[in-house]
Design brief:
The chain has 236 residues and is mostly helical. The protein has one domain. Helix content is 69%, strand content 4%. Helix 1 runs antiparallel to helix 6. The longest helix has 30 residues. The termini are far apart.
Length: 236
Amino acid sequence: MYPVIFKFGFIQIYSYGLMLVFAFWISVFLLTRQAPALKVTNDFFWNLSLVILLAGILGARLAYIALNLQFFLDNPQEVFMLWHGGLVWYGGFLGGMLSGCVYLKRKKMPLLKTLDLIMPYVGLAQSIGRIGCFLNGCCYGRLFIPAQLFSSFGLLIIFVILRLLQALPRRQGFILACYLIAVSLLRFIEEFLRGDSPRNFWGLTIFQVISIAVFLSGLFLWSIILKSAQKTRENA
């Protein structure tokens, strides 16, 4: 593994942080190409993404600390050492989603339409970020299984599929629902390959339990969309 990409004197460039920065930049850069769909400037997506990023990192770190509370009580200096790894995706997703929704509401932007535009690029950012996990050596798999690369490839496929779906006629919220279903299913499968998560819930990890909840929420949103479409056809 290569946790440090570059080192010169006291200057160190960590692979994990570098990939997070790259994931953010490339994903938002591509996302800005969707600006005409909302009739906004590129700055709107950069500002929104920055809000989501900061809240996401905070949520991801707090979730990791909560799951490893004793370690951080014994080593409080580790709380701010993000370059050592230690971000829980679901915590980051919750923090980023809540902050993003608040931001969109304050800007009076259409919530579901905007989220539908964003979600494929969230998957792309995850895919790139998982490469950072691989280089850092965190989120590791069982012996000889590079779980991080499996996750990265799966997320890249999800990104491609969601982008293709964006080109099709659809109701608002459909892309968001597909993202929730696909990402949670991938994470549920990935956990069987991981070697760093205890199976304390009837043979499942805590992240598999969360994945089930996210999967069901995606199905629930999908069912609402289908019922809405059916009512529209009936009233036509």
